[in-house]
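Dear colleague,

Thank you for sharing your sequence with our group. We've completed the structure prediction you requested, and as agreed, I am returning the results in plain text so they can be pasted directly into your records. Please verify that the sequence below matches your submission; if there's any discrepancy, let me know and we will rerun it promptly.
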Amino acid sequence: MFHPDFKPMPYWWEAYRPEADDPVDPPAQARVAIVGGGYAGLSTALELQKRGLDPVVLEARELGFGASTRNGGAVSGGVNIGKSLTGRSLSASDPARADTLLADAADAFGTIERLIEEEAIACFWRKCGRFVGAWTPAHYRAQEARVARLNAAARSEATMLPRERQREEMASDYYHGGMLVERSASLHPALYYKGLLEACRRRGIAVCARAPVRRISARNGGWLVATARGEVQAGDVVIATNGYTGEVTPQLRRRVVPVASHIIATEELPADLAASLIPKGRTLSDTRRVLCYYRMSPDGRRVIFGGRARFTPITPERSAPILHRFMTDRFPQLRGVRVTHAWTGNVAFTLDAVPHMGRQDGMHYLLGCNGSGVAMMTYLGIQTARKIAGVANYACAFDAPDFPDHPLYFGNPWFLPAIGGWYRLRDVLDRALAA
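Please find the predicted structure tokens below.
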């Protein structure tokens, strides 16, 4: 199943590869020091500079090394907000808060669309919509119960598609129908990152590669941020490390759970086959606990297929066969199609399945994409910058004082293999009982 030219790296890196050539040295002083150089860090820096504040971005690896160039490129308008891996729904436990979160998630979708237009970022932005396949008839009914709230609070333009019409959206009978969400999009994640980076550089923002932060300490009413390449005196600090949050901020590390997400890209397909798989070019996902998500590449010639092959990092050579099997379960016509790229990256989940921004120990943070990082991390970066600049005209719904942790969790997700196995078993049982 491996193509002779197989590469254990993201397919997106063919267009933009994370860079650290001639890295910028951190300045001795900055108004705001931002730890993490992904979507969150760059969007925070860009908005701070627009508001007249001087930021510096400190990235531990090459620029774009993390999830910002490794994700699937689907852009959500809030469909996943408050939907935990355990199946608990915020809409059921706290419907009023769920509605405010969905409204701000809808604003996140509009925000990224405006940013791409304002900065003229060429990243194959396309408002293609999304189809979320129902794993069982019970899942279909649960989706049906959510449509009205999604449309009212998040302006999702969601409708239900019964199983007998499913082939309008995908060349497969694998699901029991599902939900269509028109207010959803796709892009090329690495080119979007490249566009944000270029926007920062046009404005003279210092974005420093290979500058891992070793220590953050209070100093003279501000902060001293010690990196591997020098110290920065800053008035404020923003932690934007998401699924790569480390030991420098232990109180934040224990509030996010890094979950590995794995993706493959196929070789170029025959034109007629490629056109038939997802005829309307939507992004696809499903309602399984161990979900899969997939789409066509921006040129429409390959399948980009991702999912939880394992909940922890494994080599691309191990994850690719698992994902290939998942893909051919859904599209048997792809048996024999080879894989050219396979890769992995960390998604940050929170214990309440909600992204968070706020302050911890005097430092600002924005963490926990929960699988909706493209729009959400961009949005929370902009909201955090506006908060620091004192120009926010309302309280963002994701800026809440309660950022839950657990007394037995300190940042090492040792429990993920067991949870992954339990979720897989429950998925199998659900499907068997439905049959």
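Summary note from our side: The chain has a mean pLDDT of 94.

Kind regards,
the structure core
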